[in-house]
Write a structure and sequence with these properties.
This protein is α/β, with parallel strands linked by helices. The chain has helices spanning 2-11, 30-44, 61-70, 86-97, 145-149, 154-159, 164-181, 196-212, 222-229, 233-246, and strands at 18-24, 49-53, 103-105, 108-109, 114-115, 122-124, 130-135, 186-191, 249-253, 259-264. Strand 4 and strand 5 (114-115) form a beta hairpin. The longest helix has 18 residues, at 164-181.
Length: 267
């Protein structure tokens, strides 16, 4: 696998963990790719790989509800920048960057919409050589005031008429998330052909989650999914423009999620 081979080569040239950011819309295969890279690396080298997901750092529901009262009602729904525990993520990334052992990584249960209990968290027991962190907005750049002024969908037109929600999200992205992006040594971007595909891909994810979950009450219906993905539209479409420019590896998909184009930067 060319990506894994390049990561092995690059990580061997430095004396600190090699951080890889993976960006892609919902259902684009970020976690699948991360797991595959991990499998290839550990089976073809002596390197230790840690895989993380931004999704595992979502605030608990109670904390998001408090945030919704303080800032904007739309922040009760997980997803956008501002709904993650960035302080916790910063601590974890800092420990991994220092090569510390016994690092604890939380897990989030999307079926219950709450963090997993600590006994289900992951424990990194040795120093990492490569750290893969994936997230739908991981690496996405903040927008300008002009870009924020025009609503992109009915959710923003009807429930964010004064642009308070999207402005708050953008500030969080600029002030809290972007400094962490600077830790990344390498970027992979999984590019969907359009936002229209995101609903179908996310729907497939939810159907799989429903099949695998014993707790059906928090699994979304098809209509819920359509509403849910609208929270992600602005930054997903913005990523279509900003992420290819910074990506060391770009994978472009067809609507059927087959690879239409693959670009690997020469390093």
């Amino acid at each position: 696998m060319p990506i894994a081979k390049q990561l092995i080569e690059l990580s061997s040239k430095q004396y600190k963990p090699f951080f890889v950011g993976i960006n892609g819309c919902q259902g684009s295969g970020k976690s699948t790719l991360a797991a595959f890279i991990e499998h290839i690396v550990i089976n073809t080298s002596q390197l230790h790989v840690v895989v993380m997901s931004l999704d595992d750092f979502y605030y608990p529901g109670e904390q998001r509800r408090k945030l919704a009262k303080q800032e904007h009602p739309l922040l009760a729904t997980r997803g956008v920048p501002g709904t993650h525990d960035i302080n916790q993520l910063t601590v974890v990334l800092s420990k991994l960057a220092k090569g510390e052992q016994d690092v604890v990584i939380p897990r989030f249960n999307k079926a219950t919409d709450e963090p997993e209990l600590p006994n289900n968290w992951s424990y990194v027991q040795q120093s990492a050589d490569i750290v893969l962190i994936e997230g739908w907005c991981w690496g996405t750049e903040p927008q300008t005031a002009g870009e924020l002024s025009t609503p992109v969908n009915d959710l923003e037109r009807q429930q964010d008429q004064k642009a308070q929600w999207r402005s708050y999200v953008n500030r969080q992205l600029a002030q809290a998330y972007s400094p962490l992006f600077e830790l990344m040594d390498y970027w992979i971007y999984l590019k969907a052909p359009s936002f229209d595909c995101v609903y179908q891909w996310r729907l497939q994810q939810e159907h799989q989650l429903k099949r695998n979950s014993l707790q059906q009450d928090k699994v979304m219906s098809d209509a819920d999914v359509a509403h849910f993905v609208s929270y992600f539209q602005r930054l997903t479409e913005h990523s279509f423009t900003c992420m290819p420019k910074k990506a060391n590896c770009l994978v472009e998909f067809t609507p059927q999620r087959t690879v239409a184009n693959f670009r690997l930067a020469k390093r």
